[in-house]
Amino acid sequence: MDEEKIRELAACRLLAEQAYIDRNIILNVKVQIARLRGLCIEVRSEPEYYETFILLATRAEIRGAAANSHMSVLRRKRETAGELAKYYDFEKMIADYSGGVRFSGHGYYDRGLEDADTNAVFGGIANLLKVLEDLGHKALVNSGTLLGLVRDKKLITYDDDIDLAVVLKSRGELYAAREFCALVEQLNEKGIDCTLRAGNNAMIKLPDLDGFEVDLFSAYGTMRRCSIYPYAPGTLKYNDVFPLQTCDISGLPLPASPETLLEQNYGKSWEVPDPRFVFDWPRQKRKFARLIQEIAA
């Protein structure tokens, strides 16, 4: 390994650590990150590289999603090397010196769902689902919200948004995309101020609940196969989703087999809490390329 590059990484790490601990130190973070990215691939595979990037990014509160994914890679590397204690020491350092900065795959955030008024959130979701029902659509809790209610028996404390899925009448991606787009206008006509996130994604942003964003995703398919964007491209059976059941905790609708949906969304280890979970958006978006393209059209 290039010793000069190792020394450069060490110098950058030392500067980042000093700046992180002493908030009075002025640091041009973008310059330092560019300096890091200029290191050879061999050096950039070292755990110390990931730690330095995270220190720099969180010090300036930039590139939060990247810092989160780097934390996930760092943990895997430390675990593989039998050095999990070093990961936990670093995680504690971030917590001790960050001044309360929190970050996830969505970036930086001030409040997690641990701060939420759950009655307001559950009641608000119920109201939104009632509007969807009036428009002829069933809907259910989805993704992180589903994970919390099933695994933790509450909203996930370190999550920072609400996830729902609406069941469309369309079977294929073309007509599902058109129906999903039309739903935005129908919701607005019902007094639900919402926007369509098209382009490189395919979701409807519903009104915030207790200050937390609410994302509505599409579910569609046939009696044999169902899709839920963005994690199940025709890989669910009808009876994985239906009939919907009522959650004992929230009173909200859950899929018939929530465990099946959660495994497809989060993998076989979904029952193990992972605050640094990183969803493989690029891979999954390729599987839903036509749906995304039609919604953006």
Write a structural description.
- This protein is 49% helix and 17% strand.
- By secondary structure, the protein is α+β, with helices and mostly antiparallel strands.
- The protein has 2 domains: 3-109, no CATH class; 115-296, Beta Polymerase, domain 2.
- Strands 3, 4, 5, 6, 7, 8 and 9 form a 7-stranded mixed β-sheet that branches. Strands 1-2 form a two-stranded antiparallel ribbon. Strands 10-11 form a two-stranded antiparallel sheet.
- Strand 8 (225-228) and strand 9 form a beta hairpin.
Name some characteristics of this structure.
297 residues, alpha+beta, Beta Polymerase, domain 2, seven-stranded mixed sheet, two-stranded antiparallel ribbon, 12 helices, 49% helix, elongated
What's the CATH architecture of the largest domain?
2-Layer Sandwich
Average pLDDT, to the nearest integer?
91
* Helix content, binned percent: 40-55%
Oligomer: single chain
Described by strand count, sense and barrel closure, the largest sheet is: 7 strands, mixed
Q: Kindly state the number of beta strands.
A: 11
Q: Assign the structural class, choosing from mainly alpha, mainly beta, alpha/beta, alpha+beta, or little secondary structure.
A: alpha+beta
Q: Please indicate the percent range of residues in DSSP E strands (runs of 2 or more).
A: 15-25%
